[in-house]
Amino acid sequence: MSFSSGLAIYFVIWWTIIFAVLPWGLRTQEESGRVVPGTPESAPFRLRLMRIVIVNSVVAGVLFGAFYWLMQSGYKLADFPFLKVPGT
Asked: Transmembrane region positions (predicted)?
């Protein structure tokens, strides 16, 4: 796998995982008891984007590492019985 292919795959994994990581530890304004006038009660009280980006990068890195290990150890999609690959 080339560097650019690995980077593209990591980016796809990172972007997919961000939607799972975004709600982790999120407190709404309603839960905190401090609703800013003019905003919905479901708005985040304190959005910690840097923490979300770091956690997401770690989770995506672990998943990419598992993917890379599987690809380098010689496994193919046809080796997994629950995945039906046409033409194999």
From this structure: 7-26, 49-70
85 in a domain, yes or no?
Answer: no
Contacts 24+ apart (CB under 8 A), 1-4: 1/68, 1/71, 1/72
Residue 84 maps to a domain: no
Nearest 5 degrees, angle CA 66-CA 84-CA 16? 40
Per DSSP, helices labelled H in 1-88 are 3-21, 29-32, 49-72
Per residue of the chain (88 residues), what is the pLDDT tens digit? 789 999 999 999 999 999 988 888 888 888 888 888 888 888 888 878 899 899 999 999 999 999 899 888 877 766 666 656 566 5
